[in-house]
């Protein structure tokens, strides 16, 4: 891997696995081995990336369109972007050249050069957030419950990044715990990125939205409504600067997520915040 066009090579890798979710997962795992099959400083970060993607595979959102249980065009497109950016970074670190296919690839190369928790989040979330912005046309055709959970997924990945890079914003007086809780090399971050206890495990969603909201694991609801929701406006604004994606500011309004979601239906974002445990947790971790 010393010559050739990096974007073309990366696109070919993604095309080869596009219709096999298991192969997608295997390709993601391989990117953490680097261009020569051994990258000990990068390999520990694979845990969080695989956790996030394995949940997608198990849920079925990455299934091909012609499958008996078709996947989601939106989820497949976002996953394509993450895989392509990662593969291109691997190709470039192995000597391939060519014009950058996206700004996120440059951020991935910064992670390759300095594999820290903060650099990993910047790279991973730059790809994910950019894909969100690029594929709103696919998001709007998803079901109402699915569109709600697209927002939940985004706020979770942005918040987990802030645990490491902006711990006072994310945990207030408990900021000292942020880097430990959010470190993608440790098992605790799976509680945020596996999403198995937050989002339903089936696709598509055919029940009313509140059925799924009320089914969320108690600890997850406390986290979403007690800790994350009160700081959403600041979180998105911080993420827009950190990831150099100004468009992220348009995905929140007055503290309510509005990605493929009407502002008029904002009450759902506070539906679980009235419980005593959520209020106590929110006050304890207030960034003020």
Descriptive labels:
single chain, 288 residues, mainly alpha, two-stranded antiparallel sheet, 2 strands, 57% helix, 1% strand, globular
End-to-end separation: 50 Å
Largest sheet: 2 strands, antiparallel
Note the beta-strand portion. under 5%
- The radius of gyration computed from the alpha-carbon positions, rounded to a whole number of angstroms, is 18 Å
Low-confidence stretches: none
The coarse overall form would be globular
Count of DSSP strands: 2
Number of helical runs?
Answer: 15
Mean pLDDT: 90
Q: Total domains, how many?
A: 1
Widest β-sheet, arrangement of strands: 1-2
Q: What percentage of residues falls in helices of 4 or more residues?
A: 55-70%
Order of helices and strands: HHHHHHHHHHHHHHEEH
Based on secondary structure, the structural category is mainly alpha
Spell out the blueprint of helices and strands:
Elements: H1 6-17, H2 21-31, H3 46-59, H4 73-93, H5 103-113, H6 117-134, H7 136-139, H8 144-165, H9 167-171, H10 178-182, H11 190-193, H12 209-215, H13 218-228, H14 232-242, E1 252-253, E2 256-257, H15 276-284
Antiparallel strand pairs: 1-2
Helix pairs in contact: 1-4, 2-3, 2-4, 4-5, 4-6, 5-6, 6-8, 8-14, 13-15
